[in-house]
Amino acid sequence: MASSTDITSTINGPQTSIEYASRDELTALQTERMKNTLRHAYYNVPHYRRAFDEKGVHPDDFKELKDISLFPFTDKAVLRENYPFGMFAVQKHQIARIHASSGTTGRPTVVGYTRNDIENWSNLVARSLRAGGVRPGDRVQVTFGYGLFTGGLGLHYGVEKLGATAIPMSGGQTDKQLEIMRDFEPDAIVGTPSYMLNVLDRMRANGMDPRDSSIRVGIFGSEPWTEGMRKDLEDGFGIDATDIYGLSEVMGPGVAQECIETKDGLTVWEDHFYPEILDPETLEPVPDGELGELVITPITKEAFPVIRYRTHDLTRLLPGTARSMRRLDRISARNDDMIILRGVNCFPTQFEELITMDKNLRPRYQCVLTKRGRMDHLTLVVEHAPGRTPEEINYSQFNLRKLIKDRMGVTVDVDVVDQVDSGEGKAKRIVDNR
Ligand code: DLL
């Protein structure tokens, strides 16, 4: 399998040359790596041999990138059926680490890494951090959970690989986070945007000015968020905030990262991942620039190759700007988070965008679904900013409902409350009481 030598210079150089490679160079590299990956999966994972044979395709049928469409998809169900280690392509003693995604229902999905996989992953996270404005020598407070979740350890190894200093706080313990932030003076912080909002509000509640903190940059992800939320966090902390994307089945954080100089969507590290955007209904490719489901094939993985993984994340592929590699538009939602109200499709982030337009409200919210007769009904429960008068709250409640009706064409109830618990990791945006 391919080695990581092409990206190790991330540590010292300003950026690696591969980030500026020509499209032709990238295509040649992706083609070569995809060939190896398809062979590796076919010969070492029984599921892939069966699935390829059933579809009547062989790794030798892959000649150029578009031939990937001949090969079968992989989804979460396949990973669950092969729980825990049935999808591993190397022997037990070659596995250096295991992670798992909790999954709200059913068995968790388990993923494995060889030492080389960890090396590649660390390099890609280091590259992501650098693209987001972190520099060697910086101190980075890591507030993603440590454990089976890939966020904490994934970021941690990347921070160390970059030559920066990791402060491994993990999630939660917000008062402790503030104390460490004050005493250790981190230059950067990483975590979920919803948790960063908690940190911001707790600082204010404790009489601290978040803009006085030592933090210069924030790298946030692991859940959908909006431009409105970016503005709240950037203005609140006085920082530059960028978006990091990834998923455990494909690697973990560091699949794509927004560059600080453009803040215009996330560069996919195409030397390690091949992205496709498909129509979620027909599973046919949509042209670059159009919205669809992201399907990813990692092309350098040893322990856990996955072919055409259906992420269920909705986004579009855009041409490169700050780097030659293509970008993903901000991931607006997962298609399983789509709410259909009287025929109109809505996503929680659409509500978030409108919530962030009102300074009486905080983007801490939940979409509560119930049945009214045979119809689905949505109540948007939103937190108000501290110290608001009942009149201001009433006004915002009325106004948001109207804004949602005008902009999105749906009727919902809005309930503005003192507190919405958005948790310490990924925020739970949908509560389904139907
Ligand atoms: O959330 C990995 C990660 C950790 C990414 C830290 C970024 C930072 P999973 O728990 O497997 O892995 O969840 C993956 O989270 O399919 C998306 O639905 C969502 N997601 C991740 N990053 C973003 C993002 C990690 N930047 C799932 N924007 C993915 C929107 C995101 N959604």
Rg, alpha carbons: 22 Å
Per CATH, what is the topology of the largest domain? Rossmann fold
Given as residue ranges, the uncertain stretches (5+ residues, pLDDT < 50) are: 1-14
Q: Write down the overall geometry.
A: globular
| Ligand catalogue | 5'-O-[hydroxy(phenylacetyl)phosphoryl]adenosine
Helix segment count? Answer: 10
Report what the structure shows.
- It catalyses: 2-phenylacetate + ATP + CoA = phenylacetyl-CoA + AMP + diphosphate.
- One of its GO terms (molecular function) is phenylacetate-CoA ligase activity.
- It is an enzyme of class 6 (ligase).
- The protein is α/β, with parallel strands linked by helices and 434 residues long.
- The chain has two domains: 1-334, Rossmann fold (3-Layer(aba) Sandwich); 338-432, ANL, C-terminal domain (GMP Synthetase, Chain A, domain 3).
- It is 30% helix and 25% strand.
- The protein contains ten helices and 21 strands.
- A nine-stranded mixed sheet has the order 4-3-5-6-7-8-9-14-13, sandwiched between helices.
- A hairpin with a 7-residue loop joins strand 1 (97-101) and strand 2.
- Helix 1 packs across helix 2 (46-55), helix 6 (174-184) packs across helix 7 and helix 7 packs parallel to helix 8 (227-237).
- The longest helix is centred in the N-terminal third of the chain and has 22 residues, at 23-44.
- The chain is globular and about 70 Å long.
- The N and C termini lie far apart (49 Å).
- Bound molecules: 5'-O-[hydroxy(phenylacetyl)phosphoryl]adenosine.
- The site of 5'-O-[hydroxy(phenylacetyl)phosphoryl]adenosine has 21 residues, from helix 5, strand 7, strand 8 and strand 12.
